[in-house]
Amino acid sequence: MLLHLKGVYMLDTILYAWFALTALSAAYVAWDAFRNNPEMTVMKWGWVLVTLYTGPVGLVLYILA
């Protein structure tokens, strides 16, 4: 049985945190890609999709690229 924390399973809390970080990461990548990136539009959308699929890892990859 998963650890129970005041009516909410711990795994649920971790997933909610991951989804929140993913949403924030995708929002930042979208803002930066469409505002400051001279690449083609399809590449901008590609980065947003990669970030949605990979979460904060995609944000780190975007910043390093």
Task: Explain this structure.
With 65 residues, this protein is mostly helical. Helix content is 77%, strand content 6%. It has helices spanning 10-36, 41-54, 56-64, and strands spanning 4-5, 8-9. A two-stranded antiparallel sheet has the order 1-2.
SSE succession: EEHHH
Strand order of the largest sheet: 1-2
> What is the tally of beta strands?
2
Quaternary structure: single chain
Q: How many helices?
A: 3
Percentage of residues in DSSP E strands? 5-15%
The termini sit apart by 41 Å
Q: What is the residue-mean pLDDT, rounded to a whole number?
A: 89
Brief descriptors of the model:
two-stranded antiparallel sheet; 77% helix; 65 residues; mainly alpha; 2 strands; single chain; 3 helices
Brief rundown of the structure:
This protein is mainly alpha-helical and 65 residues long.
What topology does this entry show?
Blueprint: E1 4-5, E2 8-9, H1 10-36, H2 41-54, H3 56-64
Antiparallel strand pairs: 1-2
Helix pairs in contact: 1-2, 1-3, 2-3
